[in-house]
Amino acid sequence: MRKRVLFLCILLAHVLCLARMSLGQNGEFRPTARALGLGGSLVVQARDPSAIFWNPALLAGLKDRAFLLSSNRAFEFNLLSLTQFVPLYGTFGVALSQVPDTLNSVDRGTFAWGRMLTRAVALGGQVNVEKKKDDWFATAGWGIFLGNPMVGTLKRSWHDYTDSSWLDRFNLGLTFQNIPLSKKLFDLSALLGGSYLIPSLGLLFNAGYDIRKGDNTVHAGVGFEVSRNLIIYGGIANFDADDVGVGLGYTYDNFIFNLAYSADLQRLLFTLSARISPDPADLAAPHFDRGMEYREAKQFKSADKEFRKYLSYQVGGENTQLARTWVSEMQTRLARTRAKVDSLFRVARKLLNPRAPKFLRAAYIYTQILELQPENQIARARLATLRPLVTRNIHKFIEDGLYEFEAKRYEKAKKLFSRTLLLDKSNQTAQYYLSQIDQIYRDLAEEHFYRGVGYYRQKDYASAKREFKRALHYDPKSSEALSYLDRTDAKLEEGRQRVAELLQAGEKLENKRRYVEATNKYLEALQLDRDNLEAKARIARLRPKIERFVESKYREAEHLLRQERFAEAEQVFSNVLSIEPNHLGARRGLARVRARKKQVVSSYLREAETASARRDWQQALDLYLKILRLDPTNKQAKQAKAEVDKQIQVLARFREARNKFDAQDYVGAIEAYDEILSIQPHNEQAKAERSVAQIKLDDSIEKLFSEGINLYTQDRYEDAIRVWDEVLKIKPDHSGALQYKRQAQERLKALRKLN
Predict the structure, then answer these.
(1) For every residue of 115-132, which 3-state class applies, written as one string?
(2) Global pTM?
(3) Which domain holds residue 100?
């Protein structure tokens, strides 16, 4: 919808321009509000389609399609321009304007072009067709610019160039106008300009000097970028207070609105410029993608052209770096190809010597040239003239191609059949076998692709990459293989970063003399990159030190074995084998440790069972603990120890219960017997002794209760309550104690009221 509205606006403006182009005041023609606001000169600062008038070299900075309307009265326009960027060729523009003369206006149509010659030099030219009354004139102009003409164009804020080079900040420009191509209308003029940008402050200084016959003028202006969307500016011409201008520029989406007030004209001026194409980055992207496709298809000349088109948009980013690298690579490759082609042409000329012409070999040479440069028309034309002379030899290519096909050497077969078609386009045998080879290639591409996916899932990314590249060799346009190859490259890059981290960590451990840990880091790096020479070299360097360390640990393990410190010996032998898995002495030592440990454990088990049988629980526990120190996973020892623990715990509780019984602490004794029964619910001795303690406890409770009754009958209620509290502490549900305590409390309460 936005594009439709924009198109209608342009069409309406065009009609209005044709109907009523506005004439400024007689004298100097300074189109656009921004020009008047910056002092009347944009020789280096016309960063929109008005560059067609000011300095056509500045068109080089416009990398899209854009238009501009400039108005100095309501519904009246003095400039309408349109520009279009063409990759590799520059930016072209057309404009309609009405230039003031002394008495009459001059209608002007302009065609202009601008292009970057180097990184910081742009050149441009213009041709004007002018009409004054019924007379027609033709003039030309050209301009040169030093700097970066893209600074300040749509969506390129001044602040973006804070860390840029001086060429982005300092600009110089020169343009010559009104060079007559027919009879003279205007005097020749030269416009010089310069500007300096301070990006960190968002401040621009602009100056110009116009040389016209009898009327040279000086212009100066300053601009301030308030935000990315808003710029304010002011300027003066000839340092005349009556010729000043102020204005502002506002950017919204793809539109730039400029509004200025001119004291000289005493009116507001308005200019609208807009991008009517996608963003340059979006315009450039298809060229990069096509370049990638051509590169994969080994069509290097086409790839080089597409990448250079992409670079001409100057969009920046990672793809730009890749494109520059590949252009350099392909330029080198194309230069080699041109040299080889020139050499082949010389060979072909020698083969076609009139005294002893060798037509077949010459034709073969031309087919080689066409394989290197399919677009080479000279080779194609000469091959066409030789074709009738070598028809009888085509069957030789077919025979050789069939032989190579049967031998499954498809690359050679394809070349032979392709050469046959260069000599005989309608050869059905060659066409058939080429189609068969294409099908075989598709099958091989699929086979290598799925094999690569398998390696990818196994995290063997190096093998996966090799298979994906093979798949792309047979089918360069396989999007799945390209996608997986990109993902594999990303994984390999992660692996390279991880390898670098492991090498760094290993080096730090090595500096701390922790050679085994360092070696482990290097081995881990080799698991990620089996061909890493640095990791291999470091492992080789540490091997003598590791061997000395291993032998030291081996001797330590043998010493521990002789002392029958089996657990420690087994651990050290295992450590030795973790470092040197093929260490024969450590393997045998580990076997001896386990055999000897098994003997000792069996002996301790027998002794522990004997001690348990005679109920010497402490000795049995000590033996089981020894066994578990030697063999922590021994189930028999674990179970037996648990039973012994119970027996020792029961004996301890019996002693505790009996001591408390003797001390008449029947409650504590009962609690101890309950603990025994929780461990051994069927212990009859504990049950019997608990019954006796319960009887004793019941007797003591009744004795205390009776003592409370006696105190109650003697009206000693407080003493009686204390005794019954002791009863309830032992037996909280004693009904007699509860009842009599309540009665005693009531009597105490009644007595207190009487008192």
Answers:
(1) EECCCCEEEEEEEEEEEE
(2) 0.52
(3) 2-277
